[in-house]
Amino acid sequence: MSHLLYWPGRIFFYALGNTSAVCLTEELPPEHRADVLLLGCGDPRHILYTVYADASTSSEPRKLDITCCDCEAAVLARNTLLFTLLADDGAEDRLLSIWNVFYHMMLDEGSLSLLIQQCRKLVPLAESLDSWRQGPYAHIVIMCNSDTLSEIGRFWKIWLGTSNFDAEQAKRFKENFQDGIINVQRGHEADLITTSMRSAGPLAPVTRLAVSEQFKRFWMTGVTDDGSPDVKPANNPNPTFAFSLSGDKFAVHYGTDPILGFHLAEALASSGLECSTKSPSVIHKVVRTARQQFGTWCKAVIRRVQNISVSSASLVVRMYAGEALAFCQALHSVNRPSVAHTPIFIAPWKRSVVQLDDALYSPSAPAPAPTSFNVIETSNLLDHVGLQSLLTVTIPLLCGSSSSTLYTEALLLAGDSPAQSTLNHICGDLSTISLLLGVVPSSYISRFTTRFNFDNMMHDITKSSSRQCHQRLAWKHINFGHHSDGLHEGELTFTPHQLARELFDIYLRMFSDEDLRKQMAILSLDKPQLTGKIQPPGIIHYTRRSFALLLAHIRTRVRCDWNKVINILEALILQDRTLLTGSNFYQETVCQLHLAGFSISWFGPAQIRELRSQEDPPIFRSWSMVPEVVTVVLVVPRHAIAKVQSDLSNAGTPYLQCGIEVDGKHGAFACISASFGKIEISGEGENKVAVVVEDREGINGTSPLIVSFPVLSTIVIRTSGATVGLAVRPNSQTGTLVKKLGLEMCLFKALLTDERYAHVLTRSPTTSKGMINSEYPLVPPKLDTVSRGNPIHVEMDISNRRIRSLTARIDIVDPTGQASLASGCGVTAEQLSPNGAKLQVDQYHHIIPFPLPVDVTNAKLRVARKSKYVEVVAPMTLALDVKGESNVTGNFRTTFDCGVPTLWNMHRVNLDRCPSFKLSKSRTAFNWLESHVALMFSQREHTLRAQSTFPGSIPDTFMNLKDSLYALFISATRLEGPTDAEFALWNPEEKRFYAMILVTDIRLDIGSHTVVADSWIIPGSNDIQDKLKREVIPALFIKTDAHESEAWRHLLPLLIERCRTWKHKPTCEYLVHNSIPLYPGSGSDPKKVPWCSCGMGVGTKVLRERYGSASAKYATRAAISPLFLVSYMEKVGMKIDGPVGPLAMTGCAVCGKGGVPLSACSRCKKVKYCSRDCQVKDWKKHKANCVST
To answer: Does the predicted model carry a pTM greater than 0.90?
Structure first.
């Protein structure tokens, strides 16, 4: 296995999700179909919300094909149950009972009856894949293989079986279930449970006490309470919560809360409530909102799935029960016809091999299931398997389109900053790792996000070292936009020594838990410093197989002398003294590198034959041929486990590893597979085969434990008299085991030649004699021999941890270019975009796509006129430290994907699915909103503002842009003075505005926990403005300098595109000019409109009613959001102080002149002036009260 094997003593059942629902298609253009992979899918909240919130440009909804993977079949059984209930006639009338079945741990009689009736329908359908395909639900739910259907059907049978309990069985079932609830309840009696706060986003502080009280009530009663008087008694245990991988033992996770998956801000946005109220009315509001959202989302699903055939279905949900990493490798192997089946185990503690349904996953399948995806959602799997393991198996499944997105979530450790925790997960410099992997967090490039993160805000403001932070990242291909220009990503090259040093640094970080010096240094810290620094044993993720698979993936991207790289790397690992226990894993490291397809200089068939002739090992005497790698199998008697089983189960997540010992030398092996059962041996020599008959009772059964692991055959040849053993890996929670097991923590050991317990085979045991080896990893293909584009050479800095420069080599093959080069013409390089350059040689030019942002202005040129090539050596500009810049246009990236505009880091929103909230006359109703919008600003920006001597004196365009957005939101929501809904972007140098913004509504972008201004953008050209004079006059002029004007030119098309529900025309100006925005570099020129005209006048009924036909004719809808900082790059600034004066005044603050364009103070945005002269006159007085935003 590529992940450490932990003892399955306590497995929690995550029946419900612990984060609020997100729209899975928020990065996709509405024209594209969505092939979605959900790993660790949990409950179906994301699917339900996506169906509701997804935008379309036609009357037909987007095609959604969603593949769900979860190792807990009980989760999939619940999800399938829900979808089948929604597919039945009359589902809308039963939504309250469906809510109860899915979210309540205790059921009323009617809801229980609905559950049992549905199980009676489903159990016969689960007899076989054929019976399922012929059933009434095959058009919405598809099973990826028969094993999944069998496991899901097993739970339906169990649930159905509870209806046949006699009185004594029913009593015992109910008592055991309620005892489990009570045990959890007791553990929370004195606690303040605030996990659900994050589901309220900007309203989180208001819900602090209410959500805690709701959580306790849920665990006390087993139901949710919305204050309805017509509540039926709920006295029956819900079977869907009672059974899981833990059998009939109550295993529901102690943090389970039905409201966590919903968007609680909608309940309280206009309430005007003070922070931290636990009034029953608030609790009821929150629960009622969650139920209403569930009902609304379900109705959207019902409209899609009822009375629809398989061929016309616009929503398909595929189910797979098994471990996520294994499933990804299985999907990757589908495209390899030479592989008869997928050589991967279904899950830890299983000996079955993944076999996907040929009717869906064979090359000849009539309607093949997706094996590559434009959306991959990984939940918080990286907390369990490690980021590198996760990215290694998911990146090959990510479609190559520009909009394809891979999402990761993490619960960052308490005590660390978000930046440090992110780096710990990355295992290196973010730029370097991104380049090696081929994907990068989109927010790292753009330096902003349109999603609000409440956890990180609280961490930075409260300086709390105990609060854990939830972080969600969107990863995209680093070659964003290259394909659409007819260009190809350049192949990467390194010097072998630098690449080996970088890989060794990654190796040290991946296995830092083996660095005992580091652990001892942490233990020497004071208690306050120690908080959050001790690495819990549950977050040790990697084995040497993980590292080898990572290298195999990197090899698909980097052209280098890999034999030399591996030889250097192997020497570094062998000589390393940093990982004090790392030398024990040296043999396993070499073994896994070999299995991943890397050559080791001292190891091969010839060396094995020579060594065998010298040693004559008894184990191999009957073998005609000894392969490079063999499998060692150890049968551990049950009594060896039984003596410490309770200690193992109470020790958190203890990891198991094997070892081979001879003459005092010890080799450790963590890449092990295990299962309980009986082993059946047949054959002799290299034909010896082991089949495992698994014990379904697992750790609760009586069968021995069978473990296996791959080793180099040279180890077995050399180790005459060796022993093989199974041990517990020591950590901070396994200390009690030392008394029973000794310092070696060995559970059992036997002589390698003792065939009662030990076997050496050519392949790993499985549950079937015909299965091929399922232990060894798939080997990703090597880099294509054909060049894919301009070679990009990567030069590391002196520390070898960061990239110093990227060098693009351009071979001049064009005759005109060659002639110009040979004649001595000048050679120049011009920056086109953050990662694009144009090489110019007289009339010849060549576009260079760099994989990451570089500084072409300061690039060095190496010109080889005789050899006819030019090298552009460009310094890397991408780093975690953020500095103020004048030109930020590169932060707003767009490209074309199949002729459709695609956004880099601005999620799409369906404005009509974003709830609006009342603009209350009470200012206290929106205290939360001012604070929320102010959290756009970082500590760095606040410090800069405090140091400024005059408004607008800081050359930080992004900060000025945030100031303008802040002014827009504060003014449009009546936080100060009368409402301003009409804004003009105005460059004083031009003496006219270049765009008008009409805000018709402020809405909640609930999926991203923020707000959005439902706006309309009108060009500022004279002819249009002349037609608008009688209808609308801007109430607030937002002054922008030249740099901010250019930033708005790049931003406005994105704000329009992100909420688009119309199609771009064939004559779209974007396509004609091959540019988004139009006329880049034209700044505030009102004659050169930066957005296309395709959406102008579309859906403008609200403007026609409010203003008139001229406004409606020229307006294009836009979704304006706050631009928040990136938590792993900057810290949140403190809350902005209250306003000092009216924001929207009727006249100039100095002379009182009205009826003319007024500009707000660019620093505080609170006071308006008619001219610069008036502002200068007022500065001495205003300076004392000017509060920076």
So the answer is: yes
